[in-house]
Amino acid sequence: MQRLNKKLFRKDEAIAPIMMYIYIIIGVVFSKNNDKMKFLYIALGGGMGAVLRYLMTVFGNSLSAYKFPWGTLMVNLLGSFLIGLAWGYSQRFQWSENFFLFLFTGLFGGFTTYSSFALESVMLFKNNEAFFGISYLFLSLFFGILLVYIGMSISK
User: Fold this and answer.
1) CB burial class (10 A; 0-12, 13-18, 19+) of residue 90?
2) Residue 64 in contact with residue 97, Cβ under 8 Å?
3) In the chain, where are the structural domains located?
4) 41, 42, 88, 98 — which has fewest CB within 10 A?
5) What is the pLDDT along the chain (156 residues), one digit of tens a residue?
6) Nearest-CA neighbor of 74 among 57, 58, 62, 86?
7) Which residue, 60, 27, 71, 67, is CA-closest to 46?
8) Dihedral (C-alpha) 139, 66, 75, 52: value to the nearest 10 degrees?
């Protein structure tokens, strides 16, 4: 247990949650009165999504000794399924704007951005925008991978 606590609470990693709360405070302070709760719903969902992503990634990666990112794949595929499921329900039922922000922007945004990418791709094709759908897929995948490579190369 002590080893786990050291891993989870390293001093150099403490800055990320602090910065998140600073951004939330700035958003709340400088927003209109009716927008202040939106930031709190997004932050709550985002925090929950990030923790769920971490737990699922650790679990998924523990299933295999191979270097394939099983945990990330599980997160992205599950996130895609869940955002599609939630989108379908949101079309059938009246959800408040705050719940929508909590779920889609916060929870799914913190859990995986791949689910948003997948939803947007499907919606383009459903809306008979095949050119834009193919373009979005190509640009996202090609440049996403390219920019990861460039970022890794720069940071060496």
Assistant:
1) middle
2) no
3) 2-112
4) 88
5) 344 444 444 544 555 566 666 666 666 556 666 677 888 889 889 999 999 988 988 888 888 777 677 888 888 888 888 888 888 888 888 888 889 999 999 999 899 878 778 888 899 999 998 999 899 899 989 898 988 888 878 876
6) 57
7) 27
8) -140
Whether 71 contacts 59, CB under 8 Å? yes
C-alpha dist (Å) from residue 91 to 96, 97, 99, 119:
12, 13, 14, 14
The DSSP secondary-structure symbol of 155 reads T
Question: Residue for token digits 């927008």?
Answer: 35
Residue 28 CB contacts under 8 Å (≥ 6 apart), including other chains? 36, 39, 40
Tokens encoding 125: 């094709």
- The Cα–Cα gap between 46 and 140 comes to 23
Residue 2 tokens read as 């002590």
Separation in Å, CA 32 to CA 5, 36, 37:
39, 7, 10
Contact 18, 76 (CB under 8 A): no
* Residue showing tokens 């050291």: 6
Distance of CA 37 to the CA centre of its chain: 20
